[in-house]
Write a structure and sequence with these properties.
The structure is a single chain. The protein is an alpha/beta fold and about 280 residues long. The protein folds into 2 domains: about 80 residues, lambda repressor-like DNA-binding domains (434 Repressor (Amino-terminal Domain)), CATH 1.10.260; about 150 residues, Endonuclease, Chain A (2-Layer Sandwich). About 50% of the residues lie in helices and about 10% in strands. It is built from 12 helices and 6 strands. The chain has a 6-stranded mixed sheet with strand order 3-2-1-4-5-6, with helices on both faces. β5 and β6 form a beta hairpin. It is elongated and about 65 Å long. The relative contact order is 0.11. The mean pLDDT is about 90.
Length: about 280
Amino acid sequence: MNQNELNPDASPQAAFGARLRRLRKARGWKQKDLAQRTGYSSVHISQAENGRKFPTLRFSKAVDVAFGLTGTADAFEHECREIKFGSLLEGFPEYVKHEKAATEIRLFQLGLVPGLLQTPEYARTVAEGDVQRGAITPEQAEERCSFLSERQAVLARPRPPMVIVVMDESCLRHAVGGAEVMEPQLQRLIEVASLPNWVVHVSPFELGARRPFNLPINLLTLPDRSVVAYAESQARGHLERESTAVLPMLTSYHQLQAEALSQAASVAMISTLRKGTL
């Protein structure tokens, strides 16, 4: 296969490819040899080495097995995770670590259904939109959807957290992918609202200036009963631990929950909108 002169300093993806090529050659392997050891094609190996193929976790783990790097500090899996997290907003990877341990999760979302409630089709459509805008690569879109699936799966643990969601009405009315995507997504919201550890509210447009948040906000209650907050803008995310900053946000969230539609009224609104997609 043709090999380009890859500059490892050009990007994390290029550094991954350059190291992959260097270790392969150090063992005297051809690309087809590494392909046989990983279960991938020679073309895939070539594209990864040339920086044209985004390294997925599955591929990285297969490479680690081939090179005997599994579980070591030099594992390609670590490098892949760094690349993946590098495409996420600042603060979000650390937030996700806390999310896995949280006993209570409170979410407020604008515009889009919260990630933890998204169906695979809805999440994929959102990611594909980012690809079309040039914000991420198709490989990053695939990793983003896989990462979201992992976050959702954690909530199915034996003792799941209590999750309270307040969605701005715009989350329901913002059409993502058309009826074939929105109908099952709205049905998913109705199903989740019936679960004992989930509470779903809609913040109606009529709330107007009484809505305390103008940006999405996540609040986590941790096992030691401390609370951390995560908020993000278009450009960056921020994890807040200081109680002097977090407690006012928690108070505002309680006020928002009181002002929002009851769960019964919220489900009725969602059901009406779902019928409109049929």
